[in-house]
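Known limitations

Structure tokens in this collection are predictions and should be treated as such. Users comparing against experimental data should check residue numbering before alignment. To illustrate the layout, the record for Endoribonuclease YbeY is reproduced below. The input appears on top and the generated tokens appear beneath it.
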Amino acid sequence: MTMPLQIYNTTRRELAESVLTEVVTTVLQEEGFLIESLVAVYCGNKMIHRINREFLGHDYPTDTITFSYSKGSEIDGEFYISLDAVEENALRYKVGFDEELMRVTIHSALHLAGYQDGKDEERVQMQEKEALYLKRFVTPST
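Generated tokens:
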């Protein structure tokens, strides 16, 4: 039996995979999608840099790369998240690692749901959705 959502962690950092699964599943379900087959890979900058260069022609690491092969309301795809980039983002935005990991995971799920962030108005809509879902999964630090 195959799992519709498979999470792979290629790093030594421990991740709360059950929480990440809940986040991805919730976002996609609430956006009107079912997961047919989804692979989530949490990796380091070296791996995501290689993927970014090979598949997108960008010669630098990034926080997330999403590939969607979906048709209709069934999600078929994969996403890669660099935990190194998540850590850098967390420092830059002065938030905890776990909160930034949730945000980037939500961001990846939203890409799979069809949201884009290439234009300013798309980015604003994406950030609003991220904030909406983030409130549900992250307790704000004081």
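For this record: The radius of gyration is 14 Å. Residues 22 and 137 are 9 Å apart (CA to CA). Please report discrepancies through the issue tracker.
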